Amino acid sequence: MDWGMQNRLSRLIQKDGKALFLPIDHGYFQGPTHCLEKPGETIKPIYQYADALMLTRGILRNCINPAVEKPYIMRVSGAVSVVGEDLANESLVTSIQEIIRLNASAVSMSVFVGSKYENKSLANLSKLVDQCETYGIPVMAVCAVGKELEKREARYLALAARIAAELGARVVKTYYCKEHFEKVVNGCPVPIVIAGGPRTETQREVFDFVYDGIQKGAIGVNLGRNIWQTEHPVASIRAIRAIIHEGYNPQEAEDLYNQVKAGKA
Ligand code: 5RP
Questions:
Q1: Comparing C-alpha atoms, which of 173, 181, 186 is closest to residue 224?
Q2: pLDDT at residue 150 above 90?
Q3: Which domains does the chain have, with CATH numbers?
């Protein structure tokens, strides 16, 4: 692997081989998402606990101090909206010059395997990989399901993750599934990070699935709403970080969460 590619990946994936990415890109198709109306404010208390941010160039330029030391992953697919016809009909929306100009450590884009726009999104992934590999910039493929949340099961996720890796993604983001998640990880030759999805009923559910996903081979998470939409974002991200980087089990994570919440840690 070339030095530049290795260097960028090592800014994202830590020495222990694990990673906690904090996405705040949801506005690119949802508009001012709850708790993300002012992304710069949302991340102030929590970004120090993340290994990298994930966001669009618009939020980067307008809300993030350029002196920030945190690496970031730039979302470069979009041009759809939640009120539009089909979320899967994404295009590449950022040029390679802009990606380099804004010093992204990696880029990400969604692929919609099995959708009407499967070919378009997969061809876009290949195109992006070609452009980014030239400059040593890793591409993270986001295996998206749009509004079809029921697609979050092992057979589909394994298929989508593998295809994304075959087309050249250096990291793949998929959802977690309770049954056979190891099949998703084992069938994918590049590191996998787990998305959080919509807010869970309890915080413990998040600790449980992050822990189980890591046990089954994921290297970490790309997890947003179940951090910054919760009542206690700092407690939440610290507990998740402890699972990923310090080997906490879900009970230990919950204990830490409660201590941070109570101002005791
Ligand atoms: C949104 C994304 C998000 O980065 C991804 O879904 C993770 O965020 P969350 O944990 O809130 O689901 O790709 O388009």
A1: 173
A2: no
A3: 3-261 (3.20.20.70)
